[in-house]
Amino acid sequence: MTLRIVAVYPDLLGTYGDTGNAEILGRRASWRGIDVDVLHASSADPLPRGDLYCLGGGEDGPQVLAAQRLKDDGTLRSALEEGAVVFAVCAGFQIVGNSFPDAQGTLHNGLGLLDVATRKGTGSRCVGEVVVEFDALEHGGLGLPLLTGFENHAGLTTLGPSARRLGQVRHGTGNGGGDSSEGAFQDRILGTYLHGPVLARNPALADLLLTWATGGGELQELDDSREIALREERLLSATRATNREGFARKP
Ligand code: GLN
């Protein structure tokens, strides 16, 4: 069986380099001898069937188009219902939620797959390094090592009762809803504000998504020394920024 990883609409949701997440997942699968295909799905075509879908960040206009196209297409919803995994970053995170604003602040319906809602912030855009402490397994969290990434968004997101946050922001803004939370997950859908691409900096998160998509068995260990070096460098840079600017940015 071939694992099919789909980068969703890189023509609309490719502005921030998040298409790299699909490539990273593909590499980490193939390094373990897993037969894998990485598909780049254009918004001009029907969305292909896949086991793991990656949505990235984008500007406000293309984000509205992508949401409309995904709604009309219907494949993402049915794939999720049939057990596929969805990983969504920033604009993607907002799209899979219940509602999100356009450039004027007018709200649009999202896909309603993840119980989050986004509104337009009134302050300055949230831009910069982010560090998040994942909630522990014993508290219903994912229990992964510190999440490191880069945010650049105007939308502020709050979680509904069906979604759980990934964790607590240690540096940066994250969801920006006033509760210091970052990201959300619900069943097999996981969203975050973090770019990077975030899976390059957070191999444990990449492997969690691969574990979900391959049926939950343990994955072979990889040599992550380069990823670890990148993490250390980025986490140090955030620590220096914390010392300069304080604990967390306010949206
Ligand atoms: N347009 C959205 C916002 O500004 C998403 C931005 C992004 O994907 N980086 O909130």
Describe this structure in words.
- There is one protein chain.
- The protein has 251 residues and is α/β, with parallel strands linked by helices.
- It contains seven helices and 14 strands.
- A hairpin with a 5-residue loop joins strand 5 and strand 6.
- The protein is globular and about 50 Å long.
- The mean pLDDT is 96.
- The chain binds glutamine.
- The site of glutamine has 12 residues, from helix 2 and strand 9.
Please summarize what this structure is.
This protein has helices at 19-30, 60-73, 75-81, 91-96, 198-201, 203-213, 225-245; strands at 3-8, 36-41, 52-55, 85-89, 99-101, 107-109, 116-120, 126-134, 147-153, 155-159, 167-171, 181-182, 184-186, 189-192. The chain is α/β, with parallel strands linked by helices and 251 residues long. One of its GO terms (molecular function) is glutaminase activity.
